[in-house]
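Design review, sub-item: ligand-bound model
Attendees: FS, YL, KQ
YL presented the inputs for the magnesium ion complex:
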Amino acid sequence: MTRLLSFVWIGALRFLWEGRLQTLFIIGGITIGVAVIVFMSAMLAGLEANFIKRVLTSQPQIQLLPPDQVARPLRDEPGTVADAIVQRPSQRILSIDQWRTIQRRMLAMPEVTVVAPVASGSALAVRGSASRSVTVTGIEPDSYLQIVKLPDYLVAGRLRLSSDDIIIGVELARNLGVGLGDKIVLSAANGPSRVLTITGLVDFGNKPVNQRNTYVALRTAQSLLNMIGGVTTIDLAVRDIYAAEATAQQIQASTGVQADSWIKTNAQFFTAVRAQKNTNTLIRVFVGLSVAFGIAAVLIVSVIQRSRDIGILRAMGATRGQVLRLFLLQGGLLGFLGSMIGATLGASALVYWHSVTRQADGSEIFPLIIEPRLFLATAVLATLTGVLAAMAPALRAAGLDPVEAIRG
Amino acid sequence: MAEPVIRLEQVRKAYQIGLAAETEVLHGIDLRLEAGEFLALVGPSGSGKSTLLNIIGLLDRPTSGLVAINGHDIDALDDAGITHLRGHTIGFIFQSHLLISAFTARENVMMPMLVAKGRRDAEMEQRSAELLERVGLSHVADNKATNMSGGQQQRVAIARALAMRPDLVLADEPTGNLDTRSAETAFQLMRDENRQFGTSFLIVTHNMALARRCDRIIAVVDGQIAPGVA
Ligand SMILES: Nc1ncnc2c1ncn2[C@@H]1O[C@H](COP(=O)(O)OP(=O)(O)OP(=O)(O)O)[C@@H](O)[C@H]1O
Ligand SMILES: [Mg+2]
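KQ shared the predicted structure:
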């Protein structure tokens, strides 16, 4: 409060108020720029957080698979001409060798929090004359549900999986015309058929996934897929989700099985996010620059308009430093005020946008993330930009020759 | 003997015009003004009165010659030193563009104290109220400078020039734009201050009637002090 009594503050506030039309316009300009930045950044952060949340509740963070099967060409028979092109063999469903050992080793790793063996493959789901090809995922609910949050997606029934139960997606249920408690027949290419009872319906918010995904008990899947005692993948959850790729590489090197992290699986998403962030940074820089030029332009005009006043102030004993600070402060105040109003406006727009836009299923498109830190950083940055932009006008004001200024 | 408030010796001022040419406006001025003197400076238009006043007021430096204010040779001072000396010992009354239009009468009067101290305080509130009272403007103290008559503005400017209790007040045609009555009031205010507190005044004027009521008249003609003016 006492600061408001200092010469520099009194002068800066009064000069801004006296040129209130200019002040208003430049603050309006800063406000728009800052509002756009705040809106964009917060929405982007929200969308990213939302996507990551979805991925992490519907996919394992690391998935262990049997290594690729490689064809070995026969070369050594005399008289045969070796074909230079070796075709990659079609990948049969294979169990991971020694998976119990690998499971134990995974459980011993401090980075790994959950280990869930899974047996999955394709099968045909039949109900009367309707049939659909589906992916059967055999799970041990105790471990698997800690990784893929099926309960979050359950829309009807229960997550009970005894050996004759199955949980299917809502789209598949619609296609087959079945509901809770109904029975369907599942059969795989070279395994026995099984009659299973639908105990739960899940909705992942994605039509193809809702059409294909089915969940059964691990043993049921093993018998369906004709791989008793085997598993096709081991799904893992890790302590630090962003270190998942490093952990995956470490596992691959030490066990020989293929380990894919969620970061690698969703590489496309991360590329898109990075591109977005780069664009965002670019926009920030350019908005910052145009704000700086705007402030500088307004203050240059103000210095010219007030050169007589500046001369009189100098005649009355105001130092060059005081005049310099008088104008730097005006720049800082413009930046600060504009950014505060702009951030508030941007946040309000975000709240509004968040409330009116909904996904098809009525859930939010992005979670509302408004960090106080964003406000603080914006204010500090805008104030600094204002002070820097005011540098040239302020130096000009401080350098004015009082004689010239007074003669005007 | 005490140092004179103003001591000029052989002060010359030349202005650069164009790239090569120079024009000398003041050709070796010698001037002394003792403490408590009330001096009129007269001379035809363009003779160099304002130029001289700006040099004495430390707003401008001479091309050559000695300028000493209260015994301080300004050649020995840097910009900050000159600003400090100016702020604390010299009050200005300009002919036009007297006040800062963004501020009220009270704030204008306070301004020299505010820039000297850097922060507003009760003492300067009191001093400015006192000065506005003295020039008879308490009732318009919170008017913006632009909402006052020319005569009122000039009286605010006088109050402002006296705010720091300066040793010297420089006035460039302080009554030039005023009607006779306002001019008389303004002149009386300055004369009273001079008699009461011994403040020295140097007043540029075209009004010979007023000039004659000063202690001494100096005439500048063509950049030189003209001899023999009473
Ligand atoms: N910056 C400058 N550059 C060039 N010449 C100047 C400059 N300032 C003043 N002069 C010239 O110096 C001379 C003296 O000017 P000055 O303003 O001191 O006169 P004055 O006596 O105050 O006149 P008036 O009574 O009209 O105010 C004039 O001829 C003027 O043109
Ligand atoms: Mg003049």
